[in-house]
């Protein structure tokens, strides 16, 4: 796995600054989807802290991949539940339609038997020829009209029942296919989640080992919140509530998978902040990056979600002046930072 070679690099880096410089140059090839960069540490950060943040950013990417897979699994499980409910309803409709078909077919057969087995002809010419008077003819004609109406209704009901039975059968087959597909996809996602969680756990253990070598100054830099809480004016009440909620958590620790109210990961902070505004958004940064309305960078407003890297693996809440409030990464705290490099887009959710 990637973490083993990185671990050897970190060990060497902590042993000699010159080795860090050489390895850092060697490990930055141009790729279509570059690894997450550090969380813009101060220029005077130690080499150990810079390397720690590089590892932490990679772990954050694994964490967001893991959360996205969990989002996908929840969606597939919801699809499976819906498909199973549809299947149950379709099977009942199919059974009801089959009963109606049998009942109306019996009525149609009764009319056919009356016409052919008794030798009677259910038409007005027969009534005219066999009637003994004009009134008799009129009486028989009225009776025949009623019989014909009943016969036509029976035929119409039978046709409708046959159509409904066919439609119910097709709906049941579709629901069964959707349920099977959702079940198979859920099983695959479960296996993926287990593998991603194992990778994340390994990366976190590596970070714990590296964090023990950080100096007191490094740890102080990690806990820097970026300044006092500013007064931010958002364009709407929900966005304002979300911004205020996020800013109220300045200094709260970053914890993998945490969604508040005292610890957070990056998407945990944004989803928690918007939940305080009564707005439900997806859990992972990847899912959040497709939610709401896309916003160009020159149209950003306080409250907009801002995303980084490709694929997306970090999110914050824009507060104006090219700044955001966010939960950066492990060992860090909720803080105000400039928008990072590898900015990938923004969404307006309120």
TrEMBL record:
Residue spans making up a coiled coil are: 158-220
**Keywords (A to Z) from UniProt:** Coiled coil, Hydrolase, Protease, Signal, Thiol protease
Q: Has keyword Protease?
A: yes
Q: Care to name a GO molecular-function term for this sequence?
A: cysteine-type peptidase activity
Q: Which domain of life is it from?
A: Bacteria
Signal sequence coordinates: 1-32
Please indicate if the UniProt record lists Transmembrane helix as a keyword: no
- Entry-linked Pfam families: NLPC_P60
The similarity comment for this entry is: Belongs to the peptidase C40 family.
Q: What is the protein name stated in its UniProt record?
A: Cell wall-associated hydrolase, NlpC family
Instruction: Give the taxonomic lineage as stored in the record.
Output: Bacteria, Bacillati, Actinomycetota, Actinomycetes, Pseudonocardiales
């Amino acid at each position: 796995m990637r973490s083993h070679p990185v671990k050897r690099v970190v060990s060497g880096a902590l042993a000699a600054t010159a080795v860090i410089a050489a390895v850092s140059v060697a490990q930055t090839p141009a790729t279509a989807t570059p690894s997450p960069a550090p969380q813009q540490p101060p220029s005077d950060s130690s080499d150990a802290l810079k390397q720690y943040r590089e590892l932490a950013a990679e772990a954050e990417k694994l964490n967001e991949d893991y959360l996205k897979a969990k989002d996908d699994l929840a969606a597939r499980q919801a699809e499976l539940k819906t498909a199973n409910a549809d299947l149950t309803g379709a099977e009942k409709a199919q059974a009801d339609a089959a009963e109606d078909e049998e009942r109306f077919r019996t009525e149609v057969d009764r009319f056919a038997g009356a016409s052919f087995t008794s030798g009677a002809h259910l038409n007005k010419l027969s009534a005219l020829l066999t009637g003994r008077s004009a009134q008799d003819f009129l009486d028989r004609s009225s009776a025949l009209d009623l019989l014909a109406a009943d016969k036509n209704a029976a035929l119409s009901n039978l046709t409708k029942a046959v159509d409904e039975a066919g439609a119910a059968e097709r709906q049941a087959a579709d629901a069964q296919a959707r349920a099977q597909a959702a079940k198979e996809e859920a099983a695959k996602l479960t296996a993926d989640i287990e593998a991603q969680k194992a990778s994340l756990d390994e990366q976190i253990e590596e970070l714990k080992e590296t964090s023990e070598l950080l100096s007191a100054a490094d740890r102080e830099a990690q806990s820097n919140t970026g300044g006092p809480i500013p007064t931010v004016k958002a364009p709407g009440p929900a966005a304002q509530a979300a911004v205020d909620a996020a800013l109220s958590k300045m200094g709260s620790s970053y914890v993998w998978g945490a969604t508040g109210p005292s610890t957070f990961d990056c998407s945990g902070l944004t989803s928690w902040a918007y939940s305080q505004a009564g707005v439900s958004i997806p859990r992972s940064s990847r899912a959040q990056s497709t939610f709401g309305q896309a916003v160009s960078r020159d149209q950003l407003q306080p409250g907009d979600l801002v995303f980084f890297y490709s694929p997306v693996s970090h999110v914050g809440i824009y507060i104006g002046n090219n700044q955001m409030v966010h939960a950066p990464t492990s060992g860090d705290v909720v803080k105000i930072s400039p928008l990072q490099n590898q900015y990938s887009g923004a969404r307006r959710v309120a």
